Queue: 2 jobs
Job 1
Amino acid sequence: MGLRSMAKVRSIRLKANRLTMPRRLVWPCLMFISLLWLPLPAQAESVITTDAPICNGAAPSPTMFAPRSTPAQDILDITWLVIGIVGTLGVIVMAMIAFSIVRYRHREGDTDEDPPQVYGSSPIELAWTILPTLIVFILFLVSARGIFEIEKEIAPEGSLEVTVVGHRWWWEFDYPEYGFVTAGELHIPIGDDNTPISTFLTLESADVIHSFWVPQLAGKTDVVPNRINHLWLEPNTPGRYLGQCAEYCGGAHANMLITVVVEPESEFKKWVANQQKKAVEDPAVVRGRAIFERTACINCHTVRGTVANGTFAPDLTHLMSREIIGSGAVPNTPENLRQWVYDPQTIKPGCDMPAMKLTNEEIDLVCKYLETLK
């Protein structure tokens, strides 16, 4: 084939590519643009529940798009601002790309001559320099204000103070003002007329890095060994809120859940009064208590008023006042409690509690004793 014939074939292929390539690009661009107009999924109010325990698999996933606290609302406001700016710019860019593809596609009768070329434009260059700078500066100001407001290191006046300690793989909640420690569920008050009451959390870790995150109440805050971080909550709606350790911390990380119970101040005071009591001695469960106290249980757990004073595992003094077992792994039911005593690894694989290798009779007796810890 001669050079002239090869040049002719190349010209035909070039024209064919110019004709077909835009068609290949138009549909993906139009599909992407159409996705921008899809409505966001509705946020179900069932994210907050007051009549069922929140545990792994028993409640919808928490969402930051349904805030129920002042810090969470501040975070969502910033999020919507960023989404609005980025979404608008994305629509403009994709619209310009689609317009260019359609407007300047190759048509029958077009020549192969290049269109007029522009090698510089001061107005355009100023626009794409000044506009992004302004956008970044605005986002910086808004974000900085939110960060300083959310990450307070001094407890607001009149707030409840709670020390939160992250363990592998459960949460400990210490109420120094009231003199007791609990686990699994964080109870905080709200005014009886739904007036917000601030709760100031001091976050510590007993082992590795964790992260405390309850999306509807506040942003994610790391819990780091040998370092103290702070977080404050100011809920405006009573209910039960699901959270999650948001920093990978080992084998049972996925089951290191958080349950925050926001309840009217009058109910909170009743709960506090009950938590301050020592475990009730019930003569009917003496054998179960004896088995509990002669096993390794007392080396890890605390039951106030007994010889059990371990600090390695959750305080069990008022175990049955909680609606969950295993930091939210399962609801606190007699069946789940028995299975947990029999072998915790079947419920929460990787947790530090081993199977105690008790007989069926001993398990029944221990469970009857634990069920009195209300």
Job 2
Amino acid sequence: MMDTNRPRLAVIGGGPAGLMAAEVACAAGIAVDLYEAKGSVGRKFLIAGKGGLNLTHSDPMPLFAQRYRERTSAVASWLQDFDADALRGWARALGVETYVGSSGRVFPIDRKAAPLLRGWVRRLKEQGVDFHVQHRWLGWSDDGALRFATAAGDIACHADAVVLALGGGSWPQLGSDGRWQATLQQRGIAVAPLVPANCGFDIDWSAHFVQRHAGAPLKPVVAHWRDGAGVQHALQGECVATETGIEGSLIYAIAADLRQQIDVDGHAELGLDLVPGRTLERVSAEVSLPRKGRSFSEHLRRQVGIEGVKAALLYEHLGKQAGDDLALVARTLKHLPLRLLRPRPLAEAISSAGGVRLEALDAQLMARAHPGVFCAGEMLDWEAPTGGYLLTACFASGRRAALGAVDWLQRRPDRVTGDR
């Protein structure tokens, strides 16, 4: 039977932010209903588990917070309540120990998401959170009730406050389709357009290159690019040549700058050092060694160690006559220019940028234009590279929104949200 004496919070969205919001509010004595559009919660969380479930990162503060770029200050305030160490402790309380990998990333020892999610959901149910799956949020009715589409038809549910944790626009098949944007804008809540983050980019490869080398890894390489202020940067890592362009962890790490450059210039210039650790002078000397009758491709393989997709990139840029200008070959190997045309579609991205503008929310993540409505997770206007930063901010913002909702409910004897 529903407890009508306690304030009631609706949490909409069963990802990490929503689940954390439900946990915090329930622990504070609030009656919590969690609504999820799909048939089960945590679907994108489980997808992250296929890569080992990179929960967080061991970066120290303030470096950790700086990963959130323009939103460093805002996210840092969330992390004061729930940082990487707190997240690891939270997982430990669920029986999941973690370790720091060689890259500084933090993973569960078994590198699986399912055991953690199962334990978490079990604990939430034991604590009293009511789960409602296959409930797709439609917005508000005229009397302020929350409207949901269900298998049995549309229904309306009343709550005293709501935490929206609806996700961004990436992986829409898992539930985060971004359809909430128009609904919130109609309520006067400012939303920045959702755009792809942690994504690949299109390059106009030749058909021959695609046929022979799509899917080939590029490692190690050093990326050279400039940020929005025109400052040049370099970062070593790994990426992959794809049928449509380029992707991979190195590209995701710099995707925000590349996307912004495309927004300004219509394209982005990315340079790849195919022979990191060697000076231009050394590469020039290696390229200039006598060929002794060998083909230029064989010469590159023997003297410079360039073959496969790296050699193909050289020919893609310089053409069949690449060996005619050895000085140009050396310079190109140290800085192969790539013209990025556009980001891959939002639905393919690991995460999205844009969303509910933080300026439209107060410090507790409550909508200034809609008291009693709180927002958390990837639907907020922030972004970060892969490496555990995404999940950490989702957890932390879910906690911040829930604490805000609890405080708001406890200070309002009438406990009414919306227009009801």
